[in-house]
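We treat protein structure as text, and this decision shapes the records that our systems exchange. Because each token names a local backbone shape, the row as a whole describes the fold. An entry from our holdings is shown next, in its original layout:
>
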Amino acid sequence: MSELAPKEIHLAAGEFFFGSGPVRVHTVLGTCVAIAIWHPIQRIGGMCHFLLPARGAGRAADATLPGLYAEEVMALFAAALRATHTLPNEYVVKIAGGGQMFPESLPHSDCPTRGCDGARRANCLSVGCQNICAARHLLKAAGYVIAAENVGGQGSRRVVFDLRSGDLWLKRGAAMPDGQAAA
């Protein structure tokens, strides 16, 4: 008997998927971050693609894209775990993204390679770095442990997350030279 071909799910910024079975979740990241969680016993999991660390004051909620902000995507994961009667510490967690897409535009273009902590995090101009820090902080606060990450640096990432195995593959892309618009 042949194995079923996986269903292909493509996430854009702000989208979230949680499920099981023969499913591969794909996304492409620049400064955005993807969080993938997988339960190795129940073989369920999900992935998000968030754009920014937090909504900020005065921004109205967008019900069509509930996962645009790291703070809010954690509520989506929490709801999925409640529905499946699982706990954060039971999951294998992987994060990817937060690349600097226009490195020449930052006064401190080495920011993504220095690490994000303390005062540097508060003053960092890199959206990618801010996203990485938010993901790490929020995951830890919710009780998750990050098993693997491929974050920061320069350029994009194409990510594929397989819900049958929990494997996450990625392919790195290059940063864009200043003045060149993305297609």
Summary: The first helix runs from residue 70 to 84.
